[in-house]
Amino acid sequence: MSQPGIKILTVVGARPQFVKAAMVSRAIVLHNREASGRPIVQEILHTGQHYDRAMSQVFFDELGIPDPAVNLAVGSGPHGETTARMLEGIEREILARKPDWLLVYGDTNSTLAGALAAAKLHVPLAHVEAGLRSFNKNMPEEVNRVLTDHVSSLLFCPTQAAVQNLANEGITEGVHHVGDVMYDAAIAFGEIARNRSSILEQLGLKPKGYYLATVHRAENTDDRQRLAGILDGLNRLANGIPVILPLHPRTGNCIKAYGLEEIAGGLRLIEPVSLLDMVRLEQGARLILTDSGGVQKEACFHGVPCVTLREETEWVETVAAGWNQVVGHRPEGIVAAAAAAATPSGRIREYGDGNASGKILGQMLRQDLRCWHVTQP
């Protein structure tokens, strides 16, 4: 007799989550090809947190992620408003689709909305990238990840430090160190990007002949002084080598609202790029300067030193291994860190062996779901 299958409702809404979901989707496809395995049905719920094509649909196209079963098209707005709209939509879809698992990634408002909906309706929640902590609760992402972890049934940690963070908060059941799905992605898409992306040629760039920057976190974009300091520091670096800045929509809007166009004038501002083009830009950079958690790790995966434009990082392993410097927003610190950046040897082994996605699925399949049920609100 064949084993009963399971149904997973995956919630995504922001750019990095699409990449992580693609890795797990690939693992699901491989699993379903095995006649002896429990079949898995995955449906994707896109909250629409990132809603323009360059930041959303192109990722589904390039990564081969199944088209979303539903797109809530929430868009941008105040945290409370967007999270509430997501929560309402996710709850409605859980009741209609009755999944065995709700699967969330990372630390966005989409993550939190999915976690709250699952907890309220008594649906088991699996959290990929559990246990990360910056210990700065002024960051909305920190609040999102802490709350999500405390209502999750399975917590998939990319590092041992994340496992310890959860233990420090009294969370030990359902915790698994599986490695990092973004390392899976770096392996899967690194060679494809080298062969298929022509972004360096399009921009007239030579490998190791430019810096790559990304700025998008609210703590930087929503504070004029911080954003001005970061742009000033990048602008100083651009006197000696081109600084390429794919412009996040929020960052572009804030530059205009704060009147910072002149400070940003020395940078090469480009539109958001596709996944493969971003991977190729990361691979070819001499140095990456970013406030993105994911890009910090991707720099390490691709063998490129990183400067983090924040006051802290949840990816402490990258700093300990010498790949990353955390400098904040002051121009002098940014310039000094760029001058001191060096490429260490060796990769960070606790990020895994490139099969984090398979380990995640394996743990979900091992769970006995007979005690779970969807509860009407």
Element layout with pairings:
Layout: E1 6-12, H1 15-32, E2 40-46, H2 57-63, E3 70-71, H3 79-97, E4 101-105, H4 109-121, E5 125-128, H5 140-149, E6 154-157, H6 160-168, E7 175-177, H7 181-196, H8 199-203, E8 211-214, H9 218-221, H10 224-237, E9 243-246, H11 249-257, E10 268-270, H12 275-284, E11 287-290, H13 293-301, E12 306-308, H14 316-320, E13 324-326, H15 331-340, H16 356-366
Parallel strand pairs: 1-2, 1-4, 2-3, 4-5, 5-6, 6-7, 8-9, 8-11, 9-10, 11-12, 12-13
Helix pairs in contact: 1-7, 1-16, 3-4, 4-5, 7-12, 10-15
Overview of this structure, please?
The longest helix is centred in the first third of the chain and has 19 residues, at 79-97. The mean pLDDT is 91. This protein has 2 domains: 6-180 and 352-366, Rossmann fold (3-Layer(aba) Sandwich); 185-350, Glycogen Phosphorylase B (Rossmann fold), CATH 3.40.50. The strands form 2 sheets. The protein has a 7-stranded parallel β-sheet, sandwiched between helices. Strands 10-9-8-11-12-13 form a 6-stranded parallel β-sheet, sandwiched between helices. The protein is an alpha/beta fold and 377 residues long. It has 16 helices and 13 strands. It has helices at residues 15-32, 57-63, 79-97, 109-121, 140-149, 160-168, 181-196, 199-203, 218-221, 224-237, 249-257, 275-284, 293-301, 316-320, 331-340, 356-366; strands at residues 6-12, 40-46, 70-71, 101-105, 125-128, 154-157, 175-177, 211-214, 243-246, 268-270, 287-290, 306-308, 324-326.
Q: What is the residue-mean pLDDT, rounded to a whole number?
A: 91
The radius of gyration computed from the alpha-carbon positions, rounded to a whole number of angstroms, is 20 Å
Indicate the CATH class of the largest domain.
Answer: Alpha Beta
CATH homologous superfamily annotation of the largest domain: Glycogen Phosphorylase B
